[in-house]
Amino acid sequence: MRLLLARHARTASNVAALLDTAPPGPELDLVGRAQAAALAERLAGQRIGGVYTSDLVRAVQTGAPAVRAFEVAAAELPQLREIGAGEDEMSADLQRYLTALRSWGEGDHRVRIPGGEDGAEFLERFGDGIRAVAEAGHEAALVISHGAAIRTWAGFAMPQVHVALGARGMPNTTVIVADGDPDSGWTLRGIDLPAPDPDDGFAALGRPR
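Predicted structure:
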């Protein structure tokens, strides 16, 4: 199957560069709503059979234009939530969070985000969400999740993602395109980056969110 992994559109917390990860989460801002509509237009050539989002508000709102455009069913999967910030929820200090994510990227999945999950727990629950999508039997499916979650899982499943993205972050509505399935593995087909957003606080900080 073809898997299209898209980061949600912009929120006020993205502009402020806050670790806003807990449910239900913020709504899209005005720019984010426009980004969500543009995402559906960017995907027009794909044969999407289903739209799957995390159950956080920003992901559900990002998926709505694609659901309408492709006239398909939508499903919310809690397994696709962002990696929780734990004790640093709503903080602008990303140091402990990013240190844990870097450890996971280097293969040490035992490291735990203070007050949150460790790498093994995250990969298991996000992988369960992806498996549920794959088992639905679509030729192609759109999955809308979150920056750290997508980059971490995709980088584990397809190490070339880290090479392709390099030191840059994942701007809102970035799409990672992959073919495969949970059992035989995934092959990266490309990364579609949106137009730059100068007000994206994480991009301005040069951090991978």
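Summary: The chain has a mean pLDDT of 95.
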